[in-house]
Design brief:
The complex is a heterodimer of chains A (about 550) and B (about 375). Chain A has about 550 residues and is an all-alpha fold. Helix content of chain A is about 75%, strand content about 0%. In chain A, helix 11 packs antiparallel against helix 12. The relative contact order of chain A is 0.13. Chain B is an alpha/beta fold and about 375 residues long. In chain B, strands 1, 2, 3, 4, 8 and 15 form a 6-stranded mixed beta sheet that branches. Chain B is globular and about 60 Å long. The chains are: A mainly alpha (about 550), B alpha/beta (about 375).
Chain lengths: ~550, ~375
C-alpha cells in the first residue's frame, strides 16, 4: 500500500512536471522535422534584440532584488527590532502588496502615475506642467512596479529569519564589544542570510518571468515579454519555436540561480526552528516619528496600485481629471451578475487544485520528514524546483506536452478543463509541502513511535497521531496554495479554455478587450478574496508566514 | 491517478449523452467562436443569436467565445488539426481564411442561396475588396474601416488642429504622443502598414512609417490597447484603429474621436465554419442570423457598417445608431459612394513576411521612446 502510494506520487510528478519540462527542451533542440539541432540557440545568440532582452531581464531582475532588499530589510528591521506607535498595524499593512493580483496592480499604477494619471493631471492643473512626466512607461516603471509589489517577500523572509536568531548570539557579540553596525554586519546579517536569499531568489524569478507588467508599460525587450509575444504568434512557426527556445532558456536560468542560491546557503535551514523572544528597543520620540514617517511613505507607495484599481472599478469615462467624475456600479454588475463564470471557475479550479496539493503534498512532506526512501532527495529538489520555474514556461510546456490525443480516450488533455486544476496543483504544491513539512519537524517522532509500539501501523498512526498535530501547518500551506492558485495567471493563460476561464484570465480578457474597468472590478474581487485568505492564515499561523515563501 | 482519469472522463460522458439526446433538434445547443473581434461585438452578437434561437426553435444555445488575436486564432485552428474546440472563426484578414481552406480546415458556409447572394462580391476602387469567398468558404459579416483616433482635449493642449489625414500624425508636435500596435501582432496595424506602402511606394513608405515611429510614444501589446490609451488621455493620437473599437470607448463615456482617412483599409470581418465543428447547424444558423436585418442591427448599433446595400445605419435621434453615424463622420453605408482602396490582397500576401521582418529590423529593434 505504502509503496503503491509512493509510486503514485512519483508517477504524477513525472507525468505532470518532469515530462512537460523535458518536452520544451526537446522542442528547443529540434527543428520542424524533428532532427536534433542547436540552430535555435545560435539564432537566439545572433539576434541582437533577443540578446538585449536577455541582458535587460537579468539586469531588471538584479535591480529589483537590490531595490526590494533595501526596502524589505529596512522595513523588516524596524518591525522586528524596534517598538513604536502603530508597529502592529504596519506589520499587517506590509502584507498588502502580496495580495495584488497580476495585471491589475500595474493597471492601477498607470491610473495614478501614468501620463494621464492623477499625479500628472494635478501637476498640469496646479503647476502648469505642460508635458506629462513619464513615471512608469519604460524599464524604470517596471522596476518601480515590481519593487512595490515584491518587497514584502524580502520583509517576510527576513522577519522570519530575524525572529529565529538566538538573542544569546547577539548578546555574546555585545559582550566582546561588537555593537551597532559591527554587530549587524558580523552577526545579525549573516544569520538572516538564508531567509533573505530565499526571498531574493523569489523576487528575481518573479520579476524575470512577469510579462504582463512590462507589456502594459510598453516594454517589449525583456525575455518573458518576448516568450509571450512569440508564443502567441502561432502563424509564424519560426517565432513560435523561438518562444519555446526562450522558455527553455528561462528554465535553465532559473535553475542556475536556484542552484547558486542553494550553494550559497542551504535554503532549508531549519536548524533553529524555535522562534525566540525578541527584545524590542523602544525608540525615542523623534526616531519614532521618523520610523512612522518612513513606513507610512512605503505603505502609501505600495497602496498606489490599489487606489488606482479601486477608482477604475467604479469610475466611468475617467480621463484627464485627478479622480473620476462619474461613478457607477455597472462594472461589478457585469462581472458578478452577467458573467459569474470567472468567480465560479476560479473557486472550482483553485479548490480542486488545493485538494490535489493536500493529497500529494502531505504524503510528500511526510516522506521528506520521516523516511529514508530512495529518491527522497530528488523529490525534495523537484519541490523546490517548482518554485523556481517561471509560470510562463510551465504553461508553454503544458501546451507542448499534452497536445495530443490520449490513446483510447479520443481527446487531448489540453482541451479538457481538468488541465487548469492540474497545472495549478503542480505549481502551488510547494506551499502545501512546506507548510506540512515545517509542522512535521515540530512533532516529535516519539509520539508516532509510541503509537507504533501499541500496534498502530504507519498509516493509522499518521491519521490518529500525526495529522491532528500538524493540521494547522497543513491548513496554512493549503490556504497559501489556494490564494496563489486564485491569482495564477501566467501558466493558466496559455491553457485557458472557452467556458472555463478563471478570474485572472477574465482580468486579462477584459483588459485585452479594452474594458479596463471590468478588469479592475474583477481585480477588486480577487483582492477581497485574497485579503480574506490572508486574514484567515494570520489567525491560524500568527504573523509568521515568511517561511512559506522560502 | 485512476480517479483523475475518471474525473476527466465524466464531463465527456455527459457531453456524449447530451449530444445523443439532442440529435433531433433543429440546431445544436452549443456554439463557440474563436475570434479577434472584440468582446463588445462578439458578446452582443452571441447574445442576440441566443435570444433568436430561443424564439425560433425554443433551443437554449450555450454560447462561448475564445477571444484571440488573429495570428493566435489562426494558429490554434491549425493546431486543432480538424478537431476544433470552436465552431466558427470570425475576423481578421480574408487571406488567412483562404490559407485555412487550402488546408481543409474550413467547411463551406452552406447557407441559403438567397442570403448568400444578398452580399455583393466586392467593394472598393481601384482594388476591389472581396466580401465573400468565390469558393464559398467564408462570408463577410460587416464593414469596418481601420482609421485613426485622437483625444480632442490633448490635441488642443498641444496647440494643433484636429488630425484629418494620415499625414497629420507626423506633426512634430505629436512627438511621443502617438500610440500604435506592432504589425507583427495586429492585423489592423499590418493592413494599415500595407496601405502606407501601397500609397507611398516601398521606399518612401518605410520612410513614412519610420517617421511615424519617431512620433510614437507607445507600442501596445495588442491593437485593442491603442484606443484605450488614447481615450484615457495617456497619448494624444492612435494609428490603425478599427472603427468599432474607438466607438466602444465613446460609448464607455470617453472623449475620443475617429477619422477614416483616404484609403483606410475596410475589412469585411470574414466568418467561416470550421471543419469538424460539433455544431454545424447552429453555426450556419448563426451566420444566417448575422446577415439578417436583426443581425446587422447588432453591428449598426456598435460602429460597424452593413455588409449589404439593403440596410443603412439609421435610428431614432439620440439612438446609439445615430451616435455611431456621427462618430464615424456621417457615413451610413459604404455602398452609398465610391470607396477608395489600394490594398491589394495579392501584393499584401506576397510581402507579408518581408513587412514583418523589416518592421522588426528597421523599427522595433531601433525604436527608442521619445522623451
Amino acid at each position: 500500500m505504502r509503496r503503491l502510494g509512493y509510486g503514485a506520487i512519483w508517477l504524477f510528478l513525472l507525468v505532470f512536471l518532469v515530462y512537460p519540462l523535458l518536452r520544451i527542451f526537446y522542442d528547443a533542440f529540434t527543428d520542424e522535422a524533428g532532427g536534433f539541432t542547436v540552430a535555435n540557440f545560435v539564432e537566439f545568440g545572433r539576434d541582437a534584440y533577443y540578446v538585449r532582452s536577455l541582458w535587460n531581464s537579468i539586469l531588471l531582475g538584479l535591480g529589483t532584488v537590490a531595490a526590494t532588499s533595501v526596502l524589505g530589510f529596512a522595513v523588516a528591521f524596524l518591525l522586528v527590532r524596534f517598538d513604536f506607535r502603530g508597529r502592529d498595524l504596519f506589520g499587517y499593512l506590509t502584507l498588502i502588496p502580496i495580495i495584488s493580483p497580476p495585471l491589475v496592480g500595474v493597471l492601477g499604477v498607470t491610473f495614478i502615475l501614468g501620463r494621464a494619471g492623477t499625479v500628472n493631471v494635478l501637476l498640469h492643473d496646479w503647476l502648469d506642467v505642460a508635458r506629462p512626466i513619464n513615471f512608469v512607461y519604460g524599464i524604470h516603471g517596471v522596476l518601480l512596479v515590481e519593487t512595490l509589489h515584491l518587497f514584502p517577500m524580502i520583509t517576510l523572509n527576513v522577519v522570519d529569519a530575524l525572529a529565529k536568531i538566538d538573542p544569546a548570539l547577539e548578546e555574546a557579540a555585545e559582550s566582546v564589544g561588537a555593537r551597532g553596525w559591527r554587530k549587524l554586519r558580523t552577526i545579525t546579517l549573516p544569520l538572516a542570510t538564508p531567509g533573505y536569499v530565499a526571498g531574493a531568489l523569489l523576487v528575481f524569478i518573479w520579476t524575470f518571468s512577469d510579462f504582463a507588467t512590462p507589456l502594459v508599460l510598453g516594454v517589449h525587450d525583456l525575455l518573458a515579454a518576448q516568450a509571450y509575444l512569440n508564443i502567441v504568434q502561432f502563424v509564424d512557426r519560426r517565432l513560435f519555436r523561438m518562444g519555446i527556445v526562450i522558455s527553455a532558456l528561462m528554465v535553465v536560468l532559473a535553475l542556475v540561480f536556484l542552484v547558486a542560491a542553494r550553494r550559497y546557503v542551504a535554503i532549508k535551514d531549519y536548524s533553529s526552528l524555535a522562534y525566540s523572544r525578541v527584545a524590542r528597543r523602544r525608540l525615542s520620540p523623534s526616531w519614532q516619528a521618523a520610523a512612522v514617517a518612513f513606513l507610512s511613505l512605503v505603505m502609501l507607495a505600495s497602496f498606489i496600485p490599489y487606489l488606482g484599481v479601486a477608482l477604475a472599478s467604479v469610475g466611468k469615462g475617467w480621463s484627464l481629471t485627478p479622480f473620476p467624475v462619474q461613478y457607477t456600479l455597472q462594472y461589478y454588475e457585469r462581472v458578478i451578475v452577467e458573467t459569474p463564470k470567472y468567480v465560479v471557475n476560479s473557486f472550482l479550479s483553485s479548490g480542486l487544485a488545493v485538494l490535489g496539493c493536500v493529497a500529494l503534498g502531505v504524503p510528500i512532506a511526510w516522506i521528506l520528514a520521516r523516511t529514508r526512501l530512495a529518491g527522497r532527495d530528488v523529490l525534495d529538489g523537484l519541490n523546490t524546483l517548482i518554485l523556481a520555474i517561471p509560470g510562463t514556461a510551465i504553461g508553454i510546456a503544458y501546451i507542448r506536452a499534452f497536445h495530443f490525443e490520449v490513446p483510447g480516450v479520443g481527446f487531448k488533455l489540453t482541451s479538457l478543463w481538468i488541465v487548469i486544476p492540474l497545472v495549478l496543483c503542480i505549481r502551488r504544491l510547494p506551499y502545501t509541502v512546506r507548510g506540512a513539512y515545517a509542522s512535521l519537524l515540530l512533532v516529535h517522532r516519539s509520539m508516532e513511535e509510541a503509537a507504533a509500539s501499541v500496534g498502530a501501523p504507519g498509516l493509522r498512526s499518521f491519521r490518529d497521531v500525526t495529522l491532528p498535530l500538524i493540521w494547522r501547518g497543513v491548513l496554512v500551506g493549503a490556504l497559501f496554495s489556494f490564494m496563489t492558485s486564485l491569482q495564477e495567471a501566467s501558466a493558466v493563460l496559455f491553457l485557458s479554455l472557452g467556458g472555463w476561464e478563471t478570474i485572472p484570465v477574465g482580468i486579462f480578457s477584459f483588459y485585452i478587450a479594452g474594458s479596463a474597468n471590468e478588469a479592475a472590478a474583477l481585480g477588486m474581487i480577487l483582492i477581497a478574496v485574497a485579503a480574506l485568505t490572508v486574514v484567515v492564515i494570520n489567525r491560524v499561523a500568527g504573523t509568521r508566514m515568511g517561511g512559506m515563501f522560502g | 491517478m485512476r480517479r483523475l482519469v475518471a474525473v476527466a472522463l465524466f464531463p465527456a460522458l455527459l457531453a456524449a449523452l447530451a449530444g445523443g439526446a439532442l440529435a433531433q433538434a433543429p440546431i445544436e445547443s452549443e456554439l463557440t467562436l474563436i475570434t479577434p473581434v472584440s468582446k463588445f461585438i462578439h458578446d452582443a452578437a452571441l447574445k442576440a443569436f441566443a435570444e433568436y434561437a430561443k424564439e425560433k426553435w425554443n433551443v437554449t444555445v450555450k454560447t462561448n467565445a475564445i477571444p484571440a488575436g488573429t495570428p493566435v486564432a489562426y494558429g490554434r485552428i491549425v493546431e486543432w488539426k480538424g478537431k476544433p474546440d470552436a465552431d466558427i472563426f470570425w475576423g481578421g484578414e480574408s487571406a488567412l481564411f483562404e490559407k485555412l481552406a487550402e488546408q481543409k480546415l474550413l467547411q463551406k458556409v452552406e447557407i441559403s442561396k438567397e442570403v448568400w447572394d444578398s452580399i455583393p462580391a466586392s467593394i472598393g476602387k481601384p482594388k476591389p475588396i472581396p466580401l465573400k469567398d468565390k469558393d464559398g468558404y467564408w462570408i463577410g459579416t460587416a464593414l469596418e474601416p481601420y482609421g485613426l483616433v485622437y483625444h480632442p482635449v490633448k490635441i488642443k493642449r498641444l496647440g494643433i488642429a484636429e488630425p484629418k489625414d494620415w499625414e497629420d500624425l507626423l506633426n512634430p508636435k505629436l512627438r511621443g504622443e502617438v500610440a500604435q500596435c506592432a504589425p507583427t501582432r495586429s492585423s489592423s496595424s499590418n493592413a494599415t502598414y500595407e496601405v502606407m506602402l501601397s500609397m507611398h511606394g516601398e521606399d518612401k513608405g518605410w520612410q513614412w512609417l519610420k517617421k511615424l515611429a519617431d512620433n510614437t510614444g507607445h507600442f501596445t501589446a495588442r491593437s485593442r490597447d491603442v484606443p484605450t490609451v488614447v481615450a484615457k488621455g495617456e497619448y494624444a493620437a492612435g494609428f490603425a484603429v478599427p472603427s468599432y473599437m474607438a466607438f466602444e470607448e465613446k460609448l464607455a463615456g470617453f472623449d475620443i474621436k475617429f477619422v477614416a482617412p483616404k484609403n483606410a483599409f475596410v475589412t469585411p470581418e470574414p466568418m467561416a465554419i470550421l471543419a469538424g465543428s460539433r455544431s454545424p447547424r447552429a453555426a450556419r444558423a448563426f451566420v444566417e442570423f448575422l446577415l439578417s436585418e436583426r443581425g446587422q442591427k447588432v453591428f449598426m448599433e456598435r460602429g460597424l457598417f452593413p455588409i449589404t446595400p439593403k440596410y443603412k445605419v439609421q435610428g431614432a435621434p439620440g439612438s446609439t445608431a445615430e451616435l455611431a453615424v456621427q462618430f464615424t463622420g456621417g457615413v451610413r453605408s459604404y455602398f452609398d459612394g465610391e470607396i477608395a482602396n489600394i490594398y491589394d490582397e495579392g501584393v499584401a500576401a506576397r510581402r507579408s513576411e518581408a513587412l514583418k521582418t523589416r518592421f522588426r529590423s528597421d523599427i522595433e529593434s531601433v525604436w527608442k521612446k521619445p522623451n
